[in-house]
Specification:
Number of strands of chain B: 22
Number of helices of chain A: 15
Strand content of chain A: under 5%
CATH class of chain A: Mainly Alpha
Number of domains of chain B: 3
Order of helices and strands of chain A: HHHHHHHHEEHHHHHHH
Radius of gyration of chain A: 25 Å
Number of helices of chain B: 16
Shape of chain A: globular
CATH superfamily of the largest domain in chain B: Dipeptide-binding Protein, Domain 3
Largest sheet of chain A: 2 strands, antiparallel
CATH architecture of chain A: Orthogonal Bundle
CATH superfamily of chain A: MetI-like
Structural class of chain B: alpha+beta
Chains: A mainly alpha, B alpha+beta, C mainly alpha
Helix content of chain A: 55-70%
Largest sheet of chain B: 7 strands, mixed
CATH class of the largest domain in chain B: Alpha Beta
Strand order of the largest sheet of chain A: 1-2
Number of domains of chain A: 1
Strand order of the largest sheet of chain B: 7-8-9-1-10-20-11
Largest interface: B-C, 85 and 78 residues
Distance between the termini of chain B: 68 Å
Number of strands of chain A: 2
Distance between the termini of chain A: 55 Å
Oligomer: heterotrimer
Strand content of chain B: 15-25%
CATH architecture of the largest domain in chain B: Roll
Chain lengths: 314, 575, 340
């Protein structure tokens, strides 16, 4: 057999596929996950609805009251119907979506920030720092989240002033909600990060970095942390979904964002009196919450499969 | 090992299930006879319509009226609560010296006659009031009600060992004596003009409570507070299942006309929506404070809706303190606000025309001048007023008026009920058309009504306008809300005059009415007060806030009084 | 083992201490309970001053915390100008104080509501375990089949809905629409029809919708968990060995796989069981169920600090104890886990 003829020299490399980077592999795995792809496109559509939809309806229109047309069912002028003081529900769901998404993203950011901070410090240093931080984490875990959230909502109510960004004013209660949700959901991420740090900190690359005199902060955030990115991304994604649901709970109990600013949650609260007489008041915001959270959950599941196929724990 | 653990776990589960099942004893309530059940209603919960409750009806046909409360009373003892839902049960199981009927006139119940200057029961200087009791009145256990009970009540209210909710008006009584078992004499430092609306509302059974007080030094923990088995009303307390219901049964020893209904059953629900559903389906006979939006549906279900004036008016209070905005202290600005806010269509559309715009705090009472009208809706005139005053539309393109670089921008706050947030949203839009910017904020009651010391938003100037629903000492017109002496300070952190209104004319008029024993003169003074306040827009009336009662048409003889809704509960009947 | 338990219990003490501190600070600022004691009208100023003193609310915060923890029967308190011995024993001796709203001992209030909450949550938990486990197993065995995809999609939908949305849909369909169509309908409010009385049948009928709402979401997460756990196990070598040995498939599943796949369920249950006490706060308030969740909401609204704190502390204590219990069971069931 003439190997030279069958496999001409120099072409061996051409037969090999180029090595895939980690992100490319992850993307390929993600694409295979049908539900995740479906979720991603649904999410894209919903984000367009909320943010591009604002181009069609001004915020003034969303808050425009006209008590003469209160509680009209969906029709051509108002595709989603009107609320008890005549505001258009379609416009309100658009703007409500913006706020709900912003709350979700910001709360997830707070959660990731605090979780990484506590988990990395606790996992790296160990000893009494770890003991104290873990006791604090346990304390927060032991208090059922809904209790903590409600008490904190009352604690912070009306203490935070309104903030104005780019011309639109956000009521202080939005900041309050973001803080509350973020500060009550960091615990599981902290534990995950801590576990990762515990196992990684004895690895050779860390020992090497230490022996060359790298400052501690750089070791933590520059060397170890990037290796724990996978569970963090998954937790952050699912955290957005859970934050959006959390906001709807708080608003439903009347302690969330106060009207007239619309969020999907407080629209549901306002609809509670009219379950029977005006179902369009709760079907649309409720359905939108469901679809948004569903798509985020699909994407999160796909990410989990793509980035870390070994981890099968929720 | 594992099997025994899982068995243990299973046993634990079963044990706790049994434990909780123990709480669910079958406690059948005597059922209504078939004839009194409205035929149209479905017995919610039972699978077949025809099947009646499982327990056999008692021999006598029992008439039960079911009331719905959207708030459970915290306690039944009048000493320890001021919540309205507890107060109104007083007329069912307890008694008062006199009550107000549905025309807001007093009727003596325990007295032989109402005290007045003419019959000598009130001294000429107004400092002594005598009550003459009937001789036939008894507690539900047969013990006669005597002057000793009245004196005991005063003693308990003023004794510091009892942590009562409010010592008013007992703290005003300097001395109270039982001249004889049927005569009570009360002495005051100053004539107590509002005595009729405040005195005589509570009588405590001395023969039951005095031993408790002597034994434990206080009445705070008495069982009687939550289970007042001895009372003097047409019904007697029977049972209170926390979180679910309360029952009162007919008092066989009642000294007036015997009640026709055998049992009053009060059921607690979480919110208005459940109350309306229960009324519509006929599961309940009577409910309070229904929403305006439910009126149409209720009327279709044969439920009568009765608005009852109870002295409450929803209005805007303007902050006039030194640290407030100068613009709001300008009477022309306030008048412009009144002219630019279309409260009339608000009442017509949102409140379905069921009430009226209030002109003054005494709307719908004899204390308001019939010729007094609220500010009309006239945005043209309002804009002209603002122009005259120097407020011109600003140059920054958002349509808000300015004067000397200051924009016409106010913040309004209220407790966040749906009606109020809607009202504020509508106001925001309408005032913007006149060039006034209104920002809205909502609060919880504990934060909104707290004191100056706790940085209440209204009394510290955080809000320029506060919206709430207040009443005078209905049916008495007196109100201390507008007196300079009630301005909150560090010495008086709970002062009532949160708007810091300080007008000497108003103070003088209020001081005058407190001395006028002659009702006609007092009425004239209040006409003046109402006109003055409306002219100066110290208070902007949004609507008169009646209590909306709803009751099934099968209840007859029902009349409501604004002060004591159930005053004639012994005359109610079920058809 | 004994040493491990002792160690965990000792560790729980600083945790509880931190919890009590955090909660106390938070409940200081949930509003002023005295302001709403005037009923429909604002409270009179002199009553306000007097009540604040009588309820001990004018003391400095640290002193209030001390009294709450260890009572005040070792010192004199000012009651209406007289100095008498205090009557509170403090939390550490089991005295949770008196409700500011109802003026009754807190434990009395809480104890009257606990059975109602358990009545809702225990059947819900049983249903969750039964359905969650069986759906999870079925999904794992028939992975990627049509049924699995449907069930997975269904679980995701369940996970993505806020519980009150489910409740609203249930009420709308089974209470409103059914009544509209003349069918026998489910009651939307309360624990029983007062006219009929508190019979087991009545309570059972009223339980249907609340229990379904609560169970729906958790069934979704339990089944997902069970499914992935089973999938993990099924791929293990010892399962293949058992199948190769010729053991019947059902036996393999039920005895070998399930035992091990169930371990994470134990963890989930350990987290959930103490939360049963917390009651489903939102569900109870929608359905008007008189349980602990509603007690919490009502008293939080009324700024009743003692009740709010008592409920949260009791639940937190239950969570910690159950976590220790779960870890013990876990270790006992899985000999590979060593307690260190």
């Amino acid at each position: 057999m003439d190997l030279e003829k069958t496999f001409p020299e120099g072409s061996a490399e051409d037969l090999e596929a180029p090595p895939l980077s980690l992100s490319k592999m992850a993307w390929m795995r993600f694409r295979r996950h049908k539900m995740a792809m479906f979720g991603a496109s649904l999410l894209l559509f919903l984000l367009l609805f909320s943010f591009a939809g604002a181009l069609f309806f001004s915020e003034g229109y969303a808050n425009y009251t006209n008590t003469d047309i209160r509680l009209t069912s969906p029709n051509s002028a108002h595709p989603f119907g009107t609320d008890p003081i005549g505001r258009d529900i379609l416009a309100r769901t658009i703007y409500g979506g913006q706020i709900s998404v912003i709350i979700g993203l910001s709360a997830a950011f707070v959660m990731v920030f605090v979780g990484i901070f506590v988990g990395s410090i606790s996992g790296y240093f160990g000893g009494w720092i770890d003991a104290v931080l873990m006791r604090i984490t346990e304390a927060f875990i032991s208090i059922p989240r809904i209790f903590l959230v409600l008490v904190m909502a009352k604690f912070f109510s009306n203490k935070v002033p309104d903030i104005t960004i780019y011309g639109s004013t956000f009521s202080g209660s939005v900041v309050v909600i973001i803080l509350i949700i973020g500060l009550t959901s960091w615990m599981s991420l902290a534990r995950i990060v801590r576990a990762e740090f515990l196992s990684l900190k004895e690895n050779e690359f860390v020992v090497a970095a230490r022996s060359t005199g790298t400052p501690t902060w750089q070791i933590i955030f520059g060397h170890i942390l990037p290796n724990t990115i996978a569970p963090i991304i998954v937790a952050a994604t699912l955290g957005v979904a859970s934050a959006i649901i959390g906001e709807s709970y708080i608003s439903f109990l009347g302690l969330g964002v106060q009207p007239p600013t619309a969020t999907w949650g407080n629209m549901l609260d306002g609809a509670y009196q009219y379950i029977q007489t005006a179902p369009w008041l709760w079907i649309f915001p409720g359905g939108l919450i469901l679809l948004t959270v569903l798509s985020i959950n699909f994407v999160g599941d796909g990410l989990r499969d793509a980035l870390d196929p070994r981890s099968r724990l929720i | 090992m594992k099997k025994s653990l899982s068995t243990l776990g299973f046993l634990l589960l079963v044990a706790s299930l049994l434990l909780s099942a123990c709480g669910v004893k079958a406690t059948p309530v005597p059922t209504q006879a078939v004839t009194t059940q409205p035929v149209a209603s479905t017995q919610a919960g039972s699978p077949t319509q025809a099947a009646m409750p499982t327990e056999a009806p008692t021999a006598a046909q029992k008439k039960v009226a079911t009331l719905i409360f959207t708030q459970e009373p915290d306690t039944l003892s009048p000493m320890y609560t001021s919540t309205w839902y507890s107060r109104i049960t007083q007329q069912i199981w307890n008694c008062a010296a006199w009550v107000y009927d549905n025309t807001n006139n007093p009727i003596p119940v325990l007295l032989t006659e109402m005290p007045s200057v003419q019959n000598g029961d009130i001294s000429a200087d107004g400092k002594t009031i005598t009550l003459k009791l009937r001789k036939d009145i008894v507690w539900s256990d047969g013990t006669p009600i005597t002057a000793d009970d009245f004196v005991f009540t005063w003693q308990m209210y003023t004794n510091k060992a009892n942590s009562v909710n409010s010592t008013y008006p007992y703290s005003l009584i300097t001395n109270m004596v039982a001249v004889d078992p049927a005569t009570v004499q009360m002495s005051f430092d100053q004539p107590f003009i509002a005595w009729e609306a405040s005195l005589g509302k509570v009588v405590l059974p001395a023969h039951i409570l005095r031993p408790i007080f002597t034994a434990s030094g206080t009445l705070d923990n008495a069982d009687w507070n939550r289970a007042p088995t001895v009372g003097c009303g047409p019904y007697v307390f029977a049972q209170w299942e926390s979180g679910s219901y309360m029952r009162f049964e007919r008092n066989p020893k009642y000294y007036d006309a015997a009640p026709k209904i055998d049992e009053i059953f009060i059921r607690f629900v979480a919110d208005n929506a459940s109350q309306t559903a229960a009324l519509e389906s006929g599961d309940a006979d009577l409910g309070a404070m229904v929403d305006y939006s439910d009126i149409a549906a209720l009327k279709k279900a044969n439920v009568i809706v009765a608005p009852v004036v109870s002295g409450y008016n929803e209005g805007w209070y303007f902050y006039l303190g030194d640290n407030g905005k100068p613009a709001i202290k300008d009477v022309k600005v306030r008048q412009a606000i009144a002219l630019c806010f279309d409260r009339f269509s608000l009442v017509k559309n949102m409140l379905l025309g069921q009430t009226v715009v209030a002109a003054s705090m005494w709307q719908n009472t004899p204390w308001q001048d019939p010729a007094l009208n609220p500010w009309s809706y006239d945005p043209t005139r309002g804009k002209a007023l603002l122009d005259q005053d120097g407020w011109v539309v600003g140059s920054n393109g958002n349509g808000i008026r300015e004067k000397n670089g200051v924009s016409l921008d106010f913040t309004i706050g209220a407790v966040g009920s749906e009606t109020r947030t809607n009202t504020m949203a509508v106001a925001q839009q309408q005032l913007a058309q006149c060039g006034i910017k209104l920002e809205t904020k909502t609060y919880t009651p504990q934060v909104f009504y707290t004191t100056y010391a706790n940085k209440a938003p209204c009394s510290t100037g955080e809000l320029d306008i506060c919206e709430s629903s207040r009443a005078a000492d209905f049916p008495d017109p007196n109100i201390s809300l507008f007196l300079s002496s009630q301005i909150p300070t560090n010495d008086l952190p709970a002062g009532l005059n949160v708007m810091r209104l300080s007008d000497p004319t108003l103070d003088k008029l209020f001081a005058l009415q407190a001395t006028q024993i002659d009702q006609t003169q007092r009425q004239q003074t209040f006409y003046q007060i109402g006109q003055y306040m409306t002219q100066n827009v110290y208070w902007l009336g949004i609507w008169n806030d009646p209590d909306l009662w709803a009751y099934n048409s099968r209840l007859s003889g029902v009349k409501f009084s604004g002060a004591e809704p159930f005053y004639n509960v012994n005359e109610w009947d079920i058809k | 083992m004994g040493r491990y338990i002792t160690k965990r219990l000792l560790q729980a003490i600083p945790t509880m201490f931190i919890i009590s501190l955090v909660l106390f600070v938070l409940t200081q600022n949930i509003g002023d309970p005295v302001t709403t004691m005037g009923g429909r009208d604002p409270i009179r100023p002199d009553d306000y001053e007097r009540l604040r003193t009588e309820l001990g609310l004018d003391q400095p915060i640290y002193l209030q915390y001390v009294y709450w923890m260890i009572g005040n029967d070792w010192t004199k308190v000012d009651v209406g100008g007289k100095e008498i011995l205090g009557t509170r024993k403090g939390i550490l001796r089991g005295d949770f104080g008196t409700s500011l709203m109802d003026r009754v001992p807190v434990m009395e209030l809480v104890w009257s509501r606990v059975p109602n909450t358990l009545l809702l949550m225990i059947p819900a938990q049983i249903i969750i375990i039964l359905f969650g486990v069986s759906i999870g197993i079925y999904s794992a065995l028939k992975q990627y089949s049509l049924m699995d995809n449907i069930l997975t999609a269904g679980s995701f939908i369940g996970l993505s809905m806020p519980v009150f949305f489910i409740s609203l849909i249930l009420i709308y369909v089974f209470s409103v629409l059914f009544q509209h169509w003349g069918l026998p309908h489910l009651p939307a409010v309360g624990m029983f029809e007062p006219a009929v009385g508190k019979t087991p049948l009545q309570v059972a009928i009223h339980m249907i919708m609340p229990v379904t709402s609560i169970a729906f979401i958790s069934i979704a997460s339990y089944s997902r968990f069970m499914r992935s756990s089973m999938l993990n196990i099924m791929n293990q070598d010892y399962i293949r060995t058992a199948k190769a040995k010729g053991l019947e498939k059902t036996y393999v599943i039920l005895v070998h796989a399930l035992k091990n796949a169930a371990l994470p369920i134990v963890t989930l249950m350990g987290m959930d069981l103490p939360l049963l006490l917390a009651g489903a706060v939102v569900t109870e308030s929608i359905f008007g169920w008189p349980g602990m969740g509603r007690l919490f909401l009502d008293h939080l609204e009324g700024s009743d600090g003692p009740v709010v704190m008592a409920i949260v502390i009791l639940v937190a204590l239950a969570v910690i104890l159950f976590q220790i219990l779960t870890d013990l069971i876990y270790a006992l069931l899985d000999p590979r886990i060593r307690m260190d």
